[in-house]
Amino acid sequence: MTSQPSAPEKLWLSGNEALALGAHEASVKVASGYPGTPSTEILENVVNYSEIYTEWAPNEKVGLEVAIGASFAGVRALATMKHVGLNVAADPLFTASYTGVRGGLVIVVADDPSMYSSQNEQDSRNYAYAAKLPMLEPADPGEAKDFLKIAYHLSEEYDTPVLLRSCTRVSHVKGIVTSGQVESSALTPGIELLPAKLVMLPANARNRRVEVEKRQQRLRELAETSELNRIEPGDNKIGFIAAGTSYLYVKEAFPEATVLKLGLVYPLPEQLIRDFAARVEKLYVVEDLDPFLETRIKAMGIACIGKEVIPAIGELTPSVVRRAITGQAPADLFEPVELPPRPPNMCPGCPHRGLFYNLNRLKVFVSGDIGCYTLGFLPPLSAMDACVCMGASVGMAHGMDKALGEEAQGKVVAVIGDSTFLHTGLNGLINSVYNKGCSTIIILDNRITGMTGQQPNPASGTTINYDPSPTIDFPELCRAVGVKHVRTVNPHEIEATYQVLKEEIARPEVSVVITRFPCVLTVDEKKRPKKPFHSVTENCTGCTMCLRLGCPAINWQPLTPEEAKAMGKKEKQKGYALINEDMCIGCGQCYELCKFEAISKEEVSR
Amino acid sequence: MNQGNIHFVGVGGQGILLASEMTAYALINAGFDLKKSEVHGMAQRGGSVEAHLRFDQTRVYSPLIEPGTVDFQLAFETMEAARYLPYLNRNSKVIVNTQRIMPPSVATGKATYPDNCLDALTRQGIAVIPVDAYAIAKELGNIKAANVVLVGALSTFLPLPAEAFHEVIATRLPARIQEVNLQAFKAGRAAIEKD
After folding, report:
1. Which CATH class is domain B3-191?
2. Quick check: A337 and B85 CB within 8 A?
3. d(CA A546, CA A237)
4. Backbone phi, then psi, for A32, in 5-degree steps?
5. What ipTM describes this predicted complex?
6. What chain A residue is nearest to B52 in terms of C-alpha separation?
7. Does A332 map to a domain?
8. How far is B40 from chain A (nearest CA, A)?
9. Residue A331 — pLDDT band, cuts 50, 70, 90?
C-alpha cells in the first residue's frame, strides 16, 4: 500500500474507475458486490488495488453481508450494486442502519434512468429515506471519488452505513479526476464484542432504534453546514435546487442562474433550503426520476416547481431541462429519418441461440430471466414470454404450473443463466421440488456472467482476479436439492437438445436441463482459433432455415427473378443466405439446420 | 477552436470506445477539459452504440451533447450516420465509414438496407465525408484497425497536431498493435488530405 504522500496527478477516469480509486484512497480493505450495469466496473477496478480484498458475491444481499462483517471487524468496507440489486440487499441494509458500523461501510448503488440496461427505473434515494441512512450523490467522476472518501468519514463519525448514489451518467462518464492522498481509518481492526450494538434481537434493536433517530438529527445538522451542500450565486430571478447530474444539466442550460447544489441528498438541510428559497424569485427543483427532493421541500411549506414541468420518466439532459423551464422547443432540429432498428443481438456462435431456436419450435411458454439470453425475446427467435427480475423465472414457472394444473403440463419452461441461478434461482428450484411442482428448468450454463461483461461466478472456476477456485457442479447441486431428473446437453447440437427438451417437458415432475457451452467472449474462447463455416451458394435454395437462428454472421441476399436465373437457380427463388466469414466462429448450428449442403465446414483460403 | 462536441456512432464491436478514448487522450494532452459519456451494457454486440465527447478550454459541465450541436460526427457504419440526424446542424461535419453492417431485420430478409440513407444529410447541406475504412484496414492486414483509420480522418479536423495522436498510440496501445494502428491512423489522415 502506498501511504507516502504523492503529488496529485490528473487522471482520465470513468465514474466507476474513480470510485475504485476513491476506495483505494480511503484505505478500504474488503469490497464485495454483484455485477450489474452501470455499477459493474467499480469492483473490476477495485480488484487492481492489491491491498483491497475484492470478490464477486453470488448476489447483492450476500455482497452487503460480507461488507457488514468486514465493517464489524473494524476495517473499511465497500458493497456495490445496481438499483435493482439494492432490492435484493434491502434486508440486511435496513438492519445495518440499526447496528451502525465499526469500520466505515459504504454501499454504492447505481441507478439507470431511461433503462439503458435495466428492467425498471427505480430511484434509490427512496431507500435512504426508508432505511434512515445518509445518501451522497456525486455529479461526475471527480466528485464520485471525493464523495466516496467523505462517505467513509461520515460513516465512522456518525456510526452509520452510508449510501452513495451513482447513475449511468456518472458511472459511465469519463472525466478528469485528480488523485489524492491515501487516508486510513482511525480504528484498529480486530474482534470486539459489542452485543448490544450488533445483535439485533428485539430488546437491543429497540434501543438502537432510538440511536437511529438521534443520528438522523445529527445528520440534519451536518447537512446545514456541510460543504457537500453549496450555493452557487448568480441571477436571483431563477433559483435551482439540484443534485448529481441534474446539477450539471442546470449549469449547462442556465449558466447565469443561482443554484443550490446538494451533495447530501438525505437528510436535507431545511434551513439552508429556506434561506435559498427566500433569496430567489422563482424556485425550481430539477431531479432525475422521482420527486424526492421536491416532495420534502414542499412538505417544508416552501413553494417550488418540480415535476409539474420536469419529466419524471427517463433521464434528464440539458435540452430537456431547458425546454421544461422555458417551454421553448429546441430550434430547427432536423427530423429523424426512418431506418431499420438495430437492437442488440446474441453474438455469432452464442450457445444460447440454438436453445431458443428449439424453444420457439416447441411452442412452450418460456418463463425468462435476466441475462444476455433475455434477447431470446427478439425475433426471429421470439422465445421468451415473461421476464421480471433476477432469479424469478423458476418461481414464476412453478406458479403457472400450480395455477393451471394439468393444462400447463408440458407447456411451460423456465430458463435461467448460470450466474442468475446462483444469484437467486436456486431458492426457486428448492421451492419447486419441495412443493411437488412439475416445471422444466433450463440452466443456460455458459460458465460466466455474460451480459455484464464476462465476470466469473461460482460456476466459472475462478475468482474475480482469475485465481482458480472450486467450480459448482450443477448436476450434483440440483440432485442435492432433490431434483431426480437432471440432464446436460450441448446447445449447439440442435436436434439432440430438442429430443432431450421434449422428453423432459413431458415429464410430470421437476426436471432440470443444463445447456452447457462456454460464452464466446470468455478469455479462453476468444483465444481459441476460429474456423468459420462458409456458404456453398450454388446449393442454397433460399429455404431460410439458417436465418431462423438470427445469427449476425448470416445475411440474406435478395435476388430478382433475372438474377436467380443467371445464377442457375429457379426463377422463384427470392434470395440466398451468405455467411460473413469475418464474423462466423464455426459453432455449427446453421450447418446442422441446412438440408441442402449449402454450408460447408471445409476451410477456404482467404 | 476553443470547444467542440464529437459524436461517435456505430455498431457494437466496431471499436468505437477505443477510438473515442484515443481522441480523448489526444485532447487531454493538448490541455482541454473534457467529458465523455457512453452507453453500454444490455448484450455485447451488434446493437447501436454511441459515445459523446465534449471538450472545452475552460470547463465542461454536461457529459451529454445536446441535439443540434454536434461539430463532428464519426460514424463507423453508414446507416448509423443517419440515425442521429437530430444531433446535427448545417455546420456539422460527418465522417462516415462506407461499410454496411446489416441489422437483424435486414439480415433475415424482413427489411431492406436503405440505399440512400445519407441523402437526408446531404439534402440539408451537411458535409458528408466518406472513408472506406474497412478496405483501408484490410489492406493494412488487420480489419480491426478500421476504427483507427477513422480516428485518423477525424484528426484532420481537430485543433491538434497529428503527433498528439502518435503519442497516444505509442503510450496507450499494446506494443504488438502499435505499428498497424499508426499506419491505420496515417492512412486515415491521408484519405482526407488527398481530397
Report:
1. alpha beta
2. yes
3. 64
4. -145, 160
5. 0.95
6. A173
7. no
8. 8
9. confident
**pLDDT tens-place string over residues B159-177:** 999 999 999 999 999 999 9
Q: What is the CATH number of the domain that holds A175?
A: 3.40.50.970
Decide if A335 is inside a domain.
Answer: no
Confidence class for position B1, pLDDT limits 50, 70, 90: confident
User: pLDDT band for position A605 (50/70/90)?
Assistant: low
| All structural domains of chain B with their residue ranges | 3-191
pTM for this entry: 0.96
- Domain of A512? 351-526
Tell whether the model's pLDDT for residue A603 goes beyond 90: no
Strands of A26-172, DSSP E: 30-33, 53-56, 77-82, 105-111, 135-136, 162-167
Beta-carbon-side half-sphere exposure of residue A204 (alpha carbons within 13 Å): 12
Residues A574 and A514 in one domain: no
Domain C-terminal end among A192, A224, A256: A224
User: Are A108 and A142 contained in the same domain?
Assistant: yes
Nearest to B74 by CA among B38, B128, B144, B145: B128
- The reply, when asked if residue A590 is annotated as ligand binding, is yes
Give the model's pLDDT for residue A6. 76
Q: Does residue A2 belong to any structural domain of this protein?
A: no
Residues of chain B positioned with their CB less than 8 A from the CB of A168: 39
Supply the mean pLDDT for chain A. Answer: 96
Cβ contact A175–B35 (<8 Å):
yes
Across the range B48-53, mean pLDDT stands at: 93
**Alpha helix locations (H) across B50-145?**
78-83, 104-107, 119-122, 133-139
Cell 466505515 found at: A104
Contact B44 A372 (CB under 8 A): yes
